[in-house]
Write a structure and sequence with these properties.
Shape: flat
CATH class of the largest domain: Alpha Beta
Bound molecules: 1,3-dihydroxyacetonephosphate, iron/sulfur cluster
Number of helices: 16
CATH topology of the largest domain: Rossmann fold
Structural class: alpha/beta
Distance between the termini: 36 Å
Strand content: 5-15%
Length: 358
């Protein structure tokens, strides 16, 4: 922290904040010195099995600068399970699935939240923390599910199915959440649907998650046609091929996968439930049917387990980088703002979920 404060005397790179809420700071030095190596050595220990040593000199100065600046900015860094290992293990304060991140967002005393994940996650944090500054390192970090439906679509569905409650997956915009009755994540979707005490719900926008929920409950599900561009690429045939080539492998899948994929899985659950399953069962060999970085993050903590990684990457999650996070903290960008006309209603839908969970 001292090193960064000392650099304030140096000329600023980039624009200082326009509204004066946060003091300008200079871009920290990104040189890999002996001091940086020593200060970050314990962090490299956490990732040494998944990040080659030759890459660490490039990452370490960013890691040190981000960790220093978090203190200067009184910022907390929330990272989704799909973030890359250097983010997940070396700069994040809180990691987890969408539900854990939403819950943690209600608990923080930090003034600033930096969301290392996609836009709907940052928007959810902002809804739950209207008075805090919520930053996302790259505004373009979207989601094919969130992009598949608008608030106007939900209003049309309500006209078509009068009186049927609407459950919105957290992977939606605030505009869509505002038109729904309650939000859910893949971790609590069945519980949320059943909590409504009705025999029919509209569940959107993920058609595959909707099908999986329908298979777990007697409540009739009316679905939308959205899909996750990462999970819908997996096929049942591909998993059968892996099983043939890797006898004894355990296959665990995210419920955003199509039904033929889930039919091949030994376990289905949210990303946090998948991580917990691996930690509890400690299979010799496992295939996580989800975004590829998650396997690297778990592998770093479980070197005794062999992870087979069909590397389906989420291009939106991968927009978040160490360089982008550092820019966020130096320049206090990009700030998430939710239209006040929709924020209150969207917040109610998220809070109903969070309150039900706790
Ligand atoms: P969870 O982490 O809530 O399971 O969600 C997965 C996902 O696709 C987030 O983008
Ligand atoms: Fe959206 Fe799929 Fe990427 Fe998750 S993995 S952010 S659901 S596109």
């Amino acid at each position: 922290m001292t090193a960064i404060l000392e650099t304030l005397e140096k000329p600023l790179i980039g624009l200082p904040l326009q509204d004066g809420r946060f003091a300008p700071v200079a871009m920290p030095s990104l040189e890999y010195t002996d001091a940086v190596a020593a200060e970050t050595a314990h962090l490299y220990e956490r990732v040494k099995t998944v990040i080659p040593a030759i890459e660490w000199p490039v990452m370490a100065p960013y890691v040190k600068a981000i960790n220093d600046l978090k203190k200067v900015r009184n910022a907390v860094l929330l990272a989704h399970n799909y973030q890359t290992p250097e983010i997940y293990h070396c700069v994040a304060d809180i990691v987890g699935d969408s539900l854990q991140l939403a819950n943690e967002a209600t608990n923080t005393d930090a003034e600033v939240i930096v969301q290392c994940g996609v836009h709907f996650m940052a928007e959810t944090s902002k809804l739950l923390n209207p008075d805090k500054v919520v930053l996302i390192p790259d505004m373009r970090a979207g989601c094919s599910l969130a992009a598949s439906i608008s608030g106007a679509d939900v209003r049309l569905l309500r006209e078509r199915y009068p009186g049927v409650p609407v459950v919105t997956y957290v992977n939606t915009s605030a505009d869509v959440k505002a038109e729904g009755d309650i939000c859910c994540t893949s971790s609590n979707a069945v519980e949320i649907v059943e909590s409504l005490g009705v025999d029919k719900v509209i569940f959107l926008p993920d058609q595959y998650l909707a099908k999986w929920v329908a298979s777990q409950t007697n409540v009739k599900i009316i679905a939308w046609t959205g899909a996750c561009e990462v999970h819908e690429r997996f096929t049942g045939e591909e998993l059968r091929t892996y099983r043939e080539a890797q006898p004894g492998i355990q296959v665990i899948a995210h419920p955003e996968c199509p039904p033929d994929v889930l039919a091949e899985a030994d376990f289905t659950g949210s990303t946090a439930k998948m991580v917990n399953w691996v930690k509890k069962h400690r299979p010799a060999k496992v295939l996580l049917v989800t975004e590829c970085s998650m396997a690297s993050n778990v592998a770093a903590e479980a070197p005794d387990i062999e992870f087979i990684q069909p590397c389906n990457l989420c291009p939106h999650m991968k927009r978040i980088t160490l360089a982008g996070i550092l820019d966020s903290l130096v320049f206090m960008k990009e700030e998430i703002v939710v239209d006040p006309l929709i924020a209150d209603r969207a917040r109610q839908a998220v809070e109903r979920m969070v309150n039900l969970k706790s």
